[in-house]
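Repro case for the chain-ordering regression, as requested:
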Amino acid sequence: MLSIKNLRVSINNKEILKGVNLEVRPGEVHAIMGPNGTGKSTLASVISGREIFTVDEGEILYKGKNLLEMPVEDRASEGIFLGFQYPVEIPGVSITNFMRTAVNEQRKYHGLDPMPANEFLAKMEEKKKMLEIHAKLANRSVNEGFSGGEKKKNEIFQMAMLEPSLAILDETDSGLDIDALKIVANGVNKLRRPDNAFVVITHYQRLLEYIVPDIVHVLFDGRIVRSGGKELAIELEEKGYEWIKAELV
Amino acid sequence: MDKDPNNILEEVTQGEYKYGFYTDIEMDTAPKGLTEDTIRFISAKKNEPEWLLQFRLDAYHKWLGMTEPAWAHLHHPPIDYQNIIYYAAPKRKKELASLDEVDPELIATFNKLGISLEEQKRLSGVAVDAVIDSVSVKTTFSETLEKQGIIFCSFSEAVQKVPDLVKQYLGSVVPSEDNYFAALNSAVFSDGSFCYIPKGVRCPIELSTYFRINAANTGQFERTLIIGDENSYVSYMEGCTAPMRDENQLHAAIVEIIALKEAEVKYSTVQNWYPGNKKGEGGIYNFVTKRGICKGNNSKISWTQVETGSAITWKYPSVVLMGDNSVGEFYSVAVTNNYQQADTGSKMIHLGKNTRSTIVSKGISAGHSSNSYRGLVKMTKRAENSRNFSQCDSLLLGDKCGAHTFPYIKTENKTSIVEHEATTSKISDDQLFYCNQRGISTESAIGLIVNGYAREVLKQLPMEFAVEAQKLLSISLEGSVG
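-- result from build under test --
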């Protein structure tokens, strides 16, 4: 589904990703772990198409298509979803309106008519129920005045509405209390299907107690230095990132 | 009309000014230029009483002694007032009794605008006093309104039907010597709307007038007079579209509102005059004087405006709060794009005790445009315990546009409170990326963000207007980013 080969990325002439390789197949959950500042969020941004980064080398294929040639919104319509580490506020725009616009623009991309209003509202209700999200959230402006936990839950809600085939969650667990964490993890688990995949970026092993990954990668200094099963996350938690650093030197 | 806000994109990408078409209707036209004879011509055409002719001539002589104001943050080539046709009216063959008798060209025009009278009549329950080039052609729903004693007709008709009311109130809020453009309007106004709501009557429908500028080189000088008698209520809507034109067109309207004891008048505008092309050529010059007076105690006047059109907008809808406990409100969204210039805002003059006023102004600038808020809040000595709250926000798209805020505050007593808040913001790349990542194109994202920004004002508009206004905001900003 997603195939990244020798990806080298820089910002303002500073190299951040120094040759990343990654293969994600349908049905898989990948975890990318690593200390701060090693390029985890950069990887998520480049996959979703943020323009502030320069791709110096390498390729990203997604469902066989060259992702790097596609505009951000087309990537989204092709099924790539990014759960933001810091979701932005859009004052005055209700989540309902925001999601309806997103759903219908994606449908338009696929040559479909807009979703009828009643069908859309029913879908919102269904997803809210599934994620155990408080009904009030939907009528508020996008992320405006939300707590950290509410913002992250809102990201998961949007993911549920858009039904992506590849969801990248960028440190969705940061700043969450245990209850919010469970809601987020629960959402991901409920949305897991054989035909979609998740890339969960996290600093801590904690989230992976609730979302069990198939493959864990350690990103360090712009490279994936180690990949393994879920045990790798536990090992990392016990020994800390110093362990990896020490091994690499 | 399709009311789905998510179809905005299609309209946004349509490009050039959407309502730029021209209707070919026989005209009855005054010669170019302005003299006493022009005024006598207009007055005679309209079969006006002597006092009204004198009112016009008096205004004309005042105007001759005045000079065009230069204080606004606006730049335009000098206006040649002798190169303007001051009167043009569609020829009326006879009195019209039904829509079938209306010029088919006119009906076609309304259809293009999506506001066909038939549809309006049947579907939305809105009475429409349609003004094409200065003379009202068709008034609807007047029978229904008449039963309640409501008078809603063209200004000229009112002069014939209720001359005493017109004489009593005309110029009572905006005297002809008020300003240069008010004097000009008072001298040459052609037609407009008149509305009187009797004591204790709540007008059951939204009253609506669609204005159009339609003849080449014709200045449009509308005159509107709205009187809310004691304990009455009316919501009045004014919407404008204009055909594309190469030369600049002058528009100098006056709207006067009188609210007597316990009366409430709500005036909503969606203004979409032709703004000129992308290089800033052509477009309407819109110099408007709108003012209401809360004459009686506990009365209320609110102005809501969505301004997207005109090359130049010079407009300060104001409220004189004379009655004790009276309330004045001003909600505005002003969008400027390309080379448009807007200098707009409000004046709240507090004369009565315990009076309250609110100003919410949202400016949106894009392209090379200039957008200024200019406001005056005055608390006079008598206006004890009065309050004003003003909020002026500016949203900038791109880095070639300008936003300015000129708030003037004068307080002559110690018990009143005046609050002023101002912010300037931009649509951030983070917001656009966030929207893009959900599959929303940049154009739609801007429409969404701008409508969110303006929501506080848009929600003040009557429902059918709000939908139109939302679309208009997005259309106006087409191509402004990226």
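Ordering looks correct now. The domain at 2-248 of chain A is CATH 3.40.50.300 (Rossmann fold).
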